[in-house]
Amino acid sequence: MSAQGPLTSTALRGIRVIDLTDRSCVYATKMLADLGAEVIRVEPPGGDPMRSQPPLDDATGASLFHAFMNVNKQSVILDLENPDDRERLRRLIGSAQIVVESFRPGHLDRLGLGYRTFEDKVPGLVWTSVTAFGSEGPYAGWSADDLVIQAMGGLMTLTGLPERAPLRLFGEQTCYIAGLHAASGTLMAYWHALMTGEGQHVDVSIQECVAHTLENAIQFYTAEGVVRGRTKGRADPGAGVFPCSDGEIFLMAGLSMISSSWHNLVALLNATDTSGAKDLLDPKWIDPAWRKTQEARDIANEIIARFTSTRTKNQIYDLTQQNRILSAPMNKVGDLFENAQLKFLNWFVDQPFDRRTATWPGPPIRLSETPRLSPGRIAKAGEDTDAIFAALSRSAVRSATESVA
Amino acid sequence: MNKAATAALPMAGIRVLDFSWGGAGPFATKALADYGAEVIKVETSTHYDFPRTMAPYANKEKGINRSAYFSNRNSSKLGVTLNLKSKDAVAIVKRLVPSCDLVVNNFRAGVLERAGLGYQDVAELRPDVIYVSMPLQGSGGPQANYSGVGHTLNVLAGIYGMTAYDDGSVAGPGTNFPDHSVNPGHALVAIMAALVHRKRTGRGQYIEVSQLESTLNLLGPSILAYSLNRANPASEGNTSPEAAPYGVFPCADGEWIAISVSDDSQWQALAAMAGGEAWARDARFAGQAGRQAASAELAPLVAGWTKTRDAFELMRALQGKGVPAGVVQNAKHLVDADPQLAHRGHFVTLEHSEMGPTVYNNAPYRLSRTPGQPRRAAPLLGQHNNIVFNGMLGISEDDLKQMEAAGTFK
User: Fold this and answer.
1) ipTM
2) Is A212 within 8 Å of B181 (Cβ atoms)?
3) Contact residues for A81 (Cβ-Cβ < 8 A; gap 6+)
4) Secondary structure E strands in A24-147
C-alpha cells in the first residue's frame, strides 16, 4: 500500500469538535470521539443533566447512558449566562473545526453564540444543529423528546400490537437514529471543507431522521395508497415466535418470503422425527389458500412447537441455521454475553469502572487502518476546563508573537 | 442565516462501485449518490437486487422496475448488470476498479473473494481504495455463515425482546429496524471517516460493518448496565422514570397523541388547559415527584380528557404552551399533511420511466452550501450498461455485442 503521508492511528485525529448536544442526538459526537476526533463537551455549572439519565449503576448512581455516550471526550464547564464564559466559548469555537449543538433554534443566536457569529470568522467551520423539527419552519420552536418524536416521525404507528396503543421502541432509539444521520451530514460537510476550505451549516431534523426510518411505509402510501399500521405477528405458518426449553426462538420460515426456509423446516421436522411432521409434506401446504386459514396456522405451529420446545433456543438456532432456515434466538441483554459468535470475535470490551469491571459493547464498525478508540476515560464535569483554556491562551500568545515577528 | 448554495455537491468526484443489496447497504450508498457521488450499482439479471421484487409497486403492478421499496433506496445511482461468473464480466469490473474510490458489498463473507474481487485483489489495482463489507455477523466465527434479515437482527440483538408494554407483553419493532438508519448510518460514518483519513494520508483501508455488531451498539447503555447490575432492563413500554404524565393517549377519530411532561411548568400548562378536570387541580400532582409516584393513576385520567379531543388541535394547543406533544402520525399524515416536513422538502418526487412520478425520502440533513437530494430516479435493471461500459470504459459497441451474446451482462 502506498504511503503518501504520515500514519495516523485514528481517522479523525486532530479534528476539534465542540459538543453542545443533549440526549436527543449525543450519539453523533460519540461516533466522532470514537473515531479519534478531539471532542470537547461543554457542560453547564453543576454538570450535564445527562449525568443522571437512566440506566444508572446501582452501586454509584453514575449514569451509564452518560458514560456510554461521552467516553473518550473531554469536559469543560461554562456558564452561558455569564458573559465571560460566553467569551471563553467563542475562543474555544475559534479553535475548532466542527460544532455540533442541539439547542432550540435561535437560543444560541440570542446569546451571541450562533453560527452567524462564527461563519465569517472561523474558516472552514462546520456547524451542525440537531433539533427536534429543524432550524426553520412551522414546528421549529416545538418541543419533543424521544417519545414525541417517535410519534411525530411515524415510527410509533408501526410499533406495537394492533389491539393496543402504539408503542415506543426501547432504549432512546431516536438518539442513535438522529446521531448517525447528524454525524454523516457533519462529515460530508467536513469533507467539503477539507476539499474547498468552505465551511457551512448542517441543519438536522430529528423528526425527519425518523421519517427516513420507516422501511417502506412512505412508499406503500405514495405508490399503492396503503397506510401501514401495527400488524399482528406473522400470519404465515412457520413464521413467528416458538417456545423452547429455556425461552423462545423466532422463525421466518413461511413460504411468502424465502420459500426454501419452509421446505427446509419441514425436512428438519421430519429428520428429527417430530410427531405430525409427515403431514406437512402434503401438497396442500404449498397452497396459499390453505396456508391462510387459522386451522393451517394452528396445525403447523403445534407441530413446530413440539420440535422447538424440547431444546434450548440456542440449540434450535444452530439446528435451524445449519439447515438454512431463517431464525434467531429471542435474546434479552444478558443473553448477549453468552452469544457464541460474539465470544469468538472477542467483541465485548472489559474496562475498569469504579474498582469493578464494566463490559462495553465492541465496535459498531471496524476500520482496518484506523480502528475506533476503545472505551477510555469518562471525564468528570469540567475536568479539562483549566488545561484546555490554558493551552488556548498559550497558542494565542504564540500566534500573537508570530504575527509580530 | 444560511448562505445560498454556492458549491458543487460535496461527494462529487467520488466514484463508488456498489455491490450492496437489500435494505441496509443501498441506503448508505443512496446518501452518497444523492450528495453527488457517482454510484455504479452492479446487479445481474438473474440475481437482481431482491427488493425489486418486493412491494409496494407503482399502481400495484408488479415488475422488476416498479418496486417503490427498491427505487427509494437507489435514487441517483447508475445501474449495470454483470454476471460475475463470467470472466469477461470480472475483467470489466477490474477495468472499472482503478477509477473507484469505494467498493461496497454486503455479500456473505467470501463471495467476492471467490470472484477474484476481494480487498487484496482490488487494492492491487487501486492501492488507496476504501473497501466496505457489511456481513451479517462478521467474517469469521461459528455463526458467520448464519443468515438473517433486519427482523432476525431485531430478535438476536435484543431490541425485539426489550420493546414491550409495561405489563411485559413483547411486541418488537414493526419493521426490519436496523436496515433503515442504523446499519446504513454506521457504514456511512465509517466511509466518510475513511475518506478523511485517505485525504490526509493517502491511505485506503478495509472497513467491516458487521450488522450484528452495529445493531448491538443501540443497546450500549443497557449492556453496560447489565454488566454492572446483573439485571435486564424492565419493560418500560410507554412509561418513563423521568416524566409523568407520559405516554400515548387516545383522541377522537382513532388518533393517538404522545405527551411527555417532565417539569412543573409543563404540568401547569397542561393543567390550565384541562382546568375543568378534578385531577388538574389535585395537589398531589402539583410536583414532579408526586406525579411520578402516581403515574399509573394519572395516565387514565389524562386519557379520559384527551379521548374526545381532536389530536392535531390538542397537539398545537399543548405545543403552543410549551408542552412536548405530538400526534402518532402515519405515512398519510406525514406525506399529505405535515407542514414541517413539507417546509423542509423531505419528500422529493422524481419522474421514473416505468413508474411515473415517484416519491423518494430526502436525506434528513441540509447542508447550507451544498444541499444534496435525490437527483435521478432509481435505475432500471441494466439501464446504464452502455454509459458505463462504452462511455466510461471505452469498450466498443461490437465488443459489447459479443459479450452480450456470451452472457456477460446476464
Assistant:
1) 0.97
2) yes
3) none
4) 38-43, 74-77, 98-101, 126-131
Task: Specify the residue for cell string 470504459.
Answer: B393
Which of B204, B222, B258 lies at the smallest CB-CB distance from A148? B258
Q: Which of B156, B183, B148 is nearest to B172 (CA)?
A: B156
Q: Which residues in chain B have Cβ-Cβ distances shorter than 8 Å to A16?
A: none
Which among A143, A170, A348 has the least Cβ separation from residue B324? A143
- Could you read off the pLDDT of A347-366 as tens digits, one per residue? 999 999 989 999 999 999 99
| Domains of chain B as residue ranges with CATH | 15-218+345-406 (3.40.50.10540), 246-336 (3.30.1540.10)
- Selected from 2.170.190.11, 3.30.465.10, 3.40.50.10540, 3.50.50.60, the CATH number assigned to the domain covering A16-215+351-404 reads 3.40.50.10540
Given A55, A188, A217, which is nearest B367 (Cβ)?
A188
Question: How high is the pLDDT of residue A72?
Answer: 97
User: Do residue A365 and residue B207 have CB atoms under 8 angstroms apart?
Assistant: yes
Q: Which of B18, B49, B101, B179 is catalytic?
A: B179
| Per-position b or e across B176-213, b if 16+ CB within 10 A of its CB | bbbbbbbbbbbbbbbbbbbbbbbebbebbbbbbbbbbb
Nearest chain A Cα distance for residue B59, angstroms: 6
CB neighbourhood size of A405 (10 A): 5
CATH superfamily of A239-332: formyl-coa transferase, domain 3 (3.30.1540.10)
Residue A403 pLDDT grade (very low, low, confident, very high; cuts 50, 70, 90): low
pTM: 0.97
* Residues ≥6 apart with Cβ < 8 Å to B47: none
The arithmetic mean of pLDDT across residues B254-282, rounded, is: 96
Min mean pLDDT across B109-118, B145-154, B180-189 is at B109-118
Q: Residue B76's closest CA among B117, B119, B34? A: B34
Please tell me the predicted confidence (pLDDT) of residue A404.
Answer: 61
Dump pLDDT digits (tens) for A273-282.
999 999 999 9
Do the bridges between strand B15-18 and strand B356-361 make them parallel or antiparallel, or are there none, so unpaired?
unpaired
Strand partners, B81: B43
| Pairwise CA distance, residues A400 & B238, whole Å | 57
Report the alpha-carbon distance of residue B90 to residue B93 in Å, rounded.
5
Question: Mutate which of A120, A365, A366, A370 to test chain B, going by most B C-beta atoms within 10 A?
Answer: A365
In one-letter notation, the amino acid at residue B250 is: P
